[in-house]
Design a protein that fits this description.
The protein is mainly alpha-helical. The protein contains six helices and no strands. It is a multi-pass membrane protein.
């Protein structure tokens, strides 16, 4: 069980960092609107983090080498592209207009980008003597909880991060992407 929880924490780290950046750009949001947004962030990130290892588990041993290597590069490209976009937008945004439009498409893109490495981790579930479905549920719940918490941390810390919140989020995404291929 400890193994599953540590895996869940490691896989949730990307989503947690992204949620902090998203929360920081919505610091002036009404309480009810922010709660809805934080729950959506948790839902999207949690479901993606729970499904990706299940996909990796289902694909099994036959494709382990090919997809494990490819998943890192796909995640790298998506995260770096999103990071560069956030950096660009952070320089062209007024202090009064720092909010990122959190459409379902944006949330889905971020959720997939931050969970692609979880697919590769799903391959390892075949090697461990654990219930893969239980592991994926724990990963999903851990990610959802940490993402909601991250959004709130970001909202509160946004006051001292100021206009650099989006740039910081972009840099974090780029760093995570680079870390995927190192």
């Amino acid at each position: 069980m400890l193994e599953i929880f540590l895996l869940a924490l490691a896989l949730a780290a990307d989503a947690f960092a992204a949620a902090i950046g998203l929360g920081a750009t919505h610091q002036n949001e009404a309480k009810s609107q922010f709660l809805k947004m934080a729950l959506l962030i948790g839902l999207y990130f949690g479901v993606a983090q729970g499904l990706m290892p299940l996909i990796g588990y289902a694909l099994g041993f036959t494709m382990l080498g090919w997809l494990a290597d490819g998943a890192s590069w796909i995640a790298f490209l998506i995260l770096v592209a999103l990071g560069i976009k956030m950096l660009y937008e952070s320089r062209s945004v007024n202090d009064d207009d720092m909010r990122i439009n959190l459409s379902h498409r944006t949330l889905l893109s971020l959720a997939i980008a931050t969970s692609i490495d979880a697919m590769a981790a799903g391959f390892t579930l075949n090697l461990l003597s654990i219930n893969a479905y239980l592991a994926c549920l724990i990963i999903a719940l851990t990610t959802a909880i940490l993402s909601i918490l991250g959004a709130y941390i970001g909202q509160k810390s946004g006051t001292w991060l100021g206009s650099w919140a989006e740039a910081l989020g972009g840099l974090v995404l780029i760093a995570i992407g680079i870390n995927m291929v190192i």
